[in-house]
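In this section we walk through a basic example: taking a raw amino acid sequence and producing a predicted 3D structure, encoded as discrete structure tokens. The instruction is simple. Fold the sequence below.
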Amino acid sequence: MEQASPVPVLESLPVHVARVGDAMDVRRALPHRLRRRVGAWCFLDHYGPVALQAEEAGMRVGPHPHIGLQTVSWLFSGEVFHRDSLGSQQLIRPGQLNIMTAGHGISHSEESPKPHPAELHGLQFWIALPELARHNDPAFDHHSKLPALRRDGLQMSLIVGEALGERSPAKVHTPLMGLDILLTDVGRRRLPLDPHFEHALLPIEGSVTVEGRQAEPGALCYLGAGRDGLLLENQAPAHVFLIGGEPLREEVLLWWNFVARNEEEMRQASREWQAQDRRFGQVHGYDGPRLVAPEIVTRLRAS
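The resulting token sequence is shown next.
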């Protein structure tokens, strides 16, 4: 099992491009071959900003299953419409949070609404559920208002977890945090951190110096654990996203849309999805096909 760094480090982990849904390329920061997780955060896609013509479909990700994780959807621009097998139908806009808890099984779709805004830009995360929560019933929640924090020239939104004395209303199952940070003023400041968490920072736009090292879009900056603060400096407005959490002391496997503990759990989930078993329910209203699970051909890797 990969171990979180118990001491502060500065590792630059280049993102790689992946294809999601019908025709959308994303920059995937997690999982990375050198760092599979940050706390319980086990997946991170950054997409856009992409200009969308009125006649373009935009995002289209057909019905697909999940187990053992929470999906966290966060937009900087544009709109995405969510449907799931619980019957949830929810439009998400910038500054709002969709969080879906898969538990033992759920399915959902995501797409740009019709009509849609002219630009789409956002982040998609997964959080691995711990053993005590991963077999629970699925759930979906939408939060239109989240804690907003301002200090030292930083404008911040706490989307999940606890940080800087604030708590997000989103329900999570391990100690963690996700903080959207706009560096609106030029300057040098120290952002307090929980030293029990391991952290990583994803540059979104602009350039920022992190503990004396330049960080720019295109790489995830892994920071390790043991930090009680993070020195940030910028010469122009910039935008970053900070994740952190207590190291998850459980070995987990990640394959396709599933987070589990062993290969047989993955294979069973795949068989039940292909058989349209009631475990994953039905997504109603999406005008396209379900996604097909790929074949498991090699031994799965621990995340």
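Looking at the output, two observations stand out. Residues 8-245 form a domain with the Jelly Rolls fold (CATH 2.60.120.10). The chain has a mean pLDDT of 95. In the next section we compare this with other chains.
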